[in-house]
Amino acid sequence: MPLLFFRDRGKVLSSIDAYRRRYAYGEDYGTSDFKFGPITLGEKPDIIENRGYIPDTSSIMYKLMGAAKKVVVGPEIPLYLEAREDLAERMIYPMRNGVIDLNDTKAWEVIYEITRYGLLKYRPKENGFRGFYVTAAISIIAPRYMYEKLFEIHKRISEEYGVVRAVTIIPQPLAVAIAQKKTTCVVLESGHGNTQISPISMYPIRRAIVTLNRGGSDANYIASEILRDLGYGDLVQEEKLVRMFKETVGLVPANLDKAIEFGKREKEKLKIVFKVPGTRIEIDMVDQGWMRFLIGEYVFNPNHEIYESYWKRGMPRPRDLKIGDRVFYGMMDMAEAVIEAVQRTPIELQPYLYREIILSGGNFAWKVPPELEGIAVDSATKMRIMMEEKGIENVKVSLTKDPQYSVWRGCIVYSVAVPEDYLWNWERMEGWIILSRE
Amino acid sequence: MRYSTLISTLKEYFIKKGFQILVKEETTVPQDLLEHVDLLFRDANNIIAVKAVTDILEKEQFLASLTKATVLREYVDKVYVATNIKYKPFINGRLLSSNGVGLLLIDDEGNVQEAIPPRPTARRTIRGIPREYINELRSLKEQIDELRKRYSDLVKEIERFREIASEVRELHDRILRLEQKFKEETVSLGRIEKVEESLETVSIPNKEELPSYLRDNPWLQVLSRRGKGR
Fold first, then answer.
1. What is the CA radius of gyration of chain B?
2. Domains of chain A by range and CATH?
């Protein structure tokens, strides 16, 4: 069987059998999407939305489909959708905040279904297949019971279908660092509900993690308020539409005050018309284009006085939140959070961590129109500016390449490289759980 | 006023002032005293403790809270007692002032009034350190600075070696790739047929076709050593 060798200083360090080169499998349980699939997919995983629909068993569609499915996941969902009012109740997004309640049975059922969907979709037909080596990635703030539940789900699927040989779970920031080939770095993973700042040096430094109670959903709030101000208050209930509006018009300013001043002076350059796809609705920002900067700035630093008026009108203000032993800071700006996290690591390590700051997650994907260069900046530049303002120099900030796929890629590397005899240990939270010995 | 309302109002008040919330583990307050503290904040280098009192049914109860707050001053820079404004008649302001404890009064609309400012605690650490210790510390600091300098020189050296090692690795990989290519060229026809047969079901990436994230990834080496001693 062909072997893959890794070499270091001329010596063969380890070899990986051909089996794992075929059957390494990754799962990224993101807040919005579930990315999954075996190594043979190459550079990109398969993606479905991380959600499940619980059909109304009395509906005509349900009867027509003739299936006794309790939860529908993947591309089949649109076939079952009924009234729009039902959506909120029947559509379950289990990982909205990265964490699922222990007793949220519906959410765990959705996780079981999407996991099964992925593993069965790529179940190979050949005789030699004895199950995948599965590495699943979840939020670094996930409590222990989430690990236990996910292991249970894989065990159940392994018993039912024989598709899992071994399973392990790693925190998403570690997977990002692996995919980015950085062994010492700080990973900022900004999802829908929160942002995790995780220093990594070969292992995640769990005691140094800082979490912000702020994520993509907060940028959605400010985007909703802007839509209201523009006279489209009726559209703000459609979360997907608000998200698209935010992604299309939102800009990150190098300096908010200067950007607003520029926007009010050079109105033409900030003019934009957002066309709602598939409809005839067009949202024209007319001469309010300067508001575009408020969306991006809010993600990085919500402390500017301009946001006060939005909070007074009822927009939720990011609040400090305590879950278990961990404080989720609401108003701490991103640069402060990175400094806070790095300062919790050994002093010799700190300069190396500042040299590799990796931004990951959709909340950092902001465009810079060529005509606004210098006024609007990308996330990496914004972070660098903020860090320099706080006196931290020699900072290198980079955005993950293909941020959507990097966690999955890290999972594949993990599945391929970690020795099979390195078994799961709850103290170090690493290693394989072997589910099938055949 | 409910405890949770009181706490949120106080948090908002201090955060607006630019203070930072601390968790209890971040201070040096002894464990047995921590249960008498409801909130902790940092203002620059100062640590501020707040004791929230929801109900005061009699003056003795307030005196008990005050005694605990006074003890706290040994460990933090400023101490406040916070309560609803309606309990003002139960509170002996002079007693608070003389003990250096501040008073915050909160009305039902959530307005916070600093009725009595706290007196900052004198810095215990500086006051109590004898001169010989300071000299000793100075000499230690000099030694640490020297060690730091040597360490920094060493790091630079290591960095240089790393660069060389990385170049060597790159050359090594190139040789490996060439070797692999050479072997593939000379493989027999029968073997090729066998490989093609297996490719029909699952495509097996050979080294050349490995996904980009697996190529030259230092984590492969790090992870493959898991379980072989940290």
1. 33
2. 1-47+109-179+401-438 (3.30.420.40), 210-399 (3.30.420.570)
**Token code pair at residue A345:** 């690591």
Q: Which of B122, B16, B31 has its CA nearest to residue B78?
A: B122
> How would residue A389 be classed by pLDDT, with cut points 50, 70 and 90?
very high
Please, which pLDDT band fits residue A188 given cuts at 50, 70 and 90?
very high
H/E stretch holding B10: helix B3-16
A210 vs A204: CA distance, rounded Å: 12
> Which of A209, A321, A401, A418 to mutate to test binding with chain B, by most B CBs within 10 Å of its CB?
A418
Query: B162 or A64: which carries more pLDDT confidence?
Result: B162
> A48 with A156: CB under 8 angstroms?
no
Q: Are A325 and A140 in contact (CB under 8 A)?
A: no
Instruction: Say if the Cβ atoms of A417 and B220 lie within 8 Å.
Output: yes
Compare all CA atoms of chain B with the CA of A413 and give the residue at the minimum distance.
B214
Domain locations along chain B? 3-122, 129-209
CA–CA dist A23, A39 (Å, integer): 7
What mean pLDDT value characterizes chain A?
87
Chain B residues with beta carbon closer than 8 angstroms to that of A8: 169, 221
What does pTM read for this prediction? 0.64
| CA proximity to A254, closest of A358, A362, A383 | A383
> Which residue type is seen at B225?
R
* Residue A405 pLDDT greater than 60, yes or no: yes
Could you say which of 3.30.420.40, 3.55.40.20, 3.40.1350.10, 3.40.50.2000 is the CATH number of the domain covering B3-122? 3.40.1350.10
Residue A316 amino acid letter: P
Answer for the pair B53, B81: CB distance below 8 angstroms, yes or no: yes
Whether residue A21 lies within 8 A of chain B, CB to CB, comes out as: yes
What is the CA B120 to chain-centroid distance, rounded?
26
The residue among A367, A201, A347 whose CA lies nearest residue A292 is A367
Helix A292-300 with A216-229: angle, nearest 10 deg: 160
pLDDT in tens, B50-68: 988 887 766 777 777 778 7
Residue A98 has pLDDT above 80, yes or no: no
ipTM of the complex: 0.85
8 Å CB contact between B103 and B91: yes
**Distant-in-sequence, close-in-space partners of A81: CB < 8 Å, separation ≥ 6:** A53, A87
Tell me if residue B20 falls in helix, strand or coil: strand
pLDDT at B184: 62
Q: What tokens were used for A353? A: 């961590």
Residue B93 tokens, joined: 């302001």
Average pLDDT of span A230-242: 83
By DSSP bridging, strand A164-171 and strand A132-138 are parallel
- The span from the CA of A154 to the CA of A163, in Å, is 9
Tokens standing for A65? Answer: 């489909």
Q: Which of A6, A125, A422 sits opposite B226 (nearest CB)?
A: A422
Written as six digits, the tokens of B207 are 């080294």
